[in-house]
């Protein structure tokens, strides 16, 4: 009988000299998926002509498996390099008239905020950001967004799980409120696959999410789900020979890209199935709760009271004396790696600074105990 509380670090090739507590940023690819991808790379270099003749069918087969994993309509599911690319494709497709507004929240991922700003500049529009407190419940979130919608709102872009705060947003209700006043919705579901069942089922105009995070596929693997209304006009960001193909096929092959990550991705899904992921996820949620309390006690702080935190991420507040800028935050992460052997990430929200802890199947409580023993002295 499988013990879902037993960590499985042997399934990964992570450096055992470090504690890896930031799965949420770049994920980690299991050894067997690495081996599948390496074999594909070798095959491509053995006979490039034969390889590129086969790529279309192989990508299509992988795409169908990934769509099935998300429980979404394969006719509207395409592969993209990452969620940022998915959001960019969505904003390229949607009409954003001069004088209109692109609506965000203050939880929006930085690169997505930059994308909104770019499209606002290009179209003579403006970006409007709605403040959502960490402690806001679903009713408060929906009320705040509903109050911000008006006849100038061209699109609402919203995190499904915020990268900055690990907060889960009530996507179904937000889509309903926006569609009631004909405002399209783009969902940045970067962290959602493997944490939320059927994450693209809520009828958003566009949903995009990364498979390289919790599903552990090779990096560069993400999905874009397009509602029927927009499928004819949604185009890849790169113009290539598939320009006049149908969706989703016109996203499948864009010149000489490396497609091995996409083709190898289903191997990681099979590994998650063998780990009985739904039951293991329940354990990881309990583990990261305990880990956050352990670190907060060591720092003399607390765990952020996020109304609906993601299953496998928690925010632990840093001491008030530690006020991080983007530059000093990057320096702290580098020092943590070099001086205390811990890979972490830090984040800021509403003037407060946090360590954002993650948990995956290779983690044990001892990993977080090590961080709790070592991080306080790094902050002195």
Overview of this protein structure:
The chain is of the alpha/beta class. Helices cover 41% and strands 14% of the residues. It has 2 domains: 9-30 and 275-378, Alpha-Beta Complex (Aspartate Aminotransferase, domain 1); 33-270, 3-Layer(aba) Sandwich (Aspartate Aminotransferase, domain 2), CATH 3.40.640.10. It is built from 11 helices and 12 strands. Strand 11 (346-349) and strand 12 (352-358) form a beta hairpin. Helix 3 (48-70) crosses helix 8, helix 6 (138-148) packs parallel to helix 7 and helix 10 crosses helix 11 (365-378). The longest helix has 23 residues, at 48-70. The mean pLDDT is 97.
Distance between the termini: 46 Å
- Please provide the ordered H/E string of secondary-structure elements: EHHHEHEHEHEHEEEHHEHEEEH
| Largest sheet strand order | 2-8-7-6-5-3-4
Domains, number = 2
- Count of strand segments: 12
Helix content: 40-55%
Q: Would you give the CATH topology of the largest domain?
A: Aspartate Aminotransferase, domain 2
Low-confidence stretches are none
Quickly give the CATH architecture of the largest domain. Answer: 3-Layer(aba) Sandwich
- Integer average pLDDT: 97
**Top CATH class of the largest domain:** Alpha Beta
CATH-assigned homologous superfamily of the largest domain: Type I PLP-dependent aspartate aminotransferase-like (Major domain)
Largest sheet: 7 strands, mixed
- Radius of gyration (Å): 21 Å
Structural class: alpha/beta
Report strand %: 5-15%
Shape: globular
């Amino acid at each position: 009988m499988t013990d879902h509380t037993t960590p499985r670090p042997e399934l990964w090739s992570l450096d055992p000299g470090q504690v890896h507590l930031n799965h949420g940023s770049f994920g980690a690819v299991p050894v067997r998926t690495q081996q599948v991808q390496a074999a594909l790379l070798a095959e491509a270099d053995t006979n490039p002509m034969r390889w590129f003749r086969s790529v279309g069918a192989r990508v299509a087969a992988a795409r169908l498996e990934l769509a099935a994993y998300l429980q979404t309509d394969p006719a509207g599911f395409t592969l993209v390099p990452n969620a940022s690319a998915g959001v960019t494709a969505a904003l390229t497709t949607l009409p954003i008239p001069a004088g209109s507004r692109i609506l965000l929240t203050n939880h929006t991922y930085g690169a997505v905020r930059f994308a909104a700003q770019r499209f606002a500049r290009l179209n003579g529009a403006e970006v409007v950001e709605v403040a959502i407190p960490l402690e806001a419940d679903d009713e408060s979130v929906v009320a705040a967004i509903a109050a911000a919608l008006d006849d100038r709102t061209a699109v609402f872009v919203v995190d499904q799980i915020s990268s900055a705060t690990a907060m889960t947003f009530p996507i179904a209700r937000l889509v309903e409120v926006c569609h009631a006043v004909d405002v399209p919705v783009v969902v940045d579901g970067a962290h959602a696959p493997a944490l939320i069942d059927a994450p693209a089922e809520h009828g958003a105009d566009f949903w995009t999410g990364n498979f390289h995070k919790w599903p552990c596929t090779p990096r560069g693997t993400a999905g874009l789900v397009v509602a029927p209304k927009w499928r004819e006009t949604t185009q890849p960001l790169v113009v290539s020979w598939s320009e006049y193909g149908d969706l989703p096929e016109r996203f499948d092959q864009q010149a000489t890209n490396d497609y091995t990550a996409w083709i190898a991705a289903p191997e990681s899904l099979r590994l998650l199935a063998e780990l009985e992921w739904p039951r293991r996820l329940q354990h990881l949620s309990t583990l990261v709760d305990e880990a956050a309390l352990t670190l907060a006690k060591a720092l003399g702080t607390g765990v952020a009271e996020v109304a609906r935190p993601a299953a496998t991420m928690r925010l632990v507040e840093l001491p008030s004396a530690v006020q991080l800028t983007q530059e000093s935050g990057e320096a702290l992460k580098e020092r943590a790696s070099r001086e205390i052997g811990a890979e972490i990430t830090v984040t800021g929200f509403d003037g407060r600074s946090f360590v954002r802890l993650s948990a995956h199947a290779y983690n044990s409580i001892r990993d977080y105990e090590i961080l709790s023993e070592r991080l306080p002295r790094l902050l002195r």
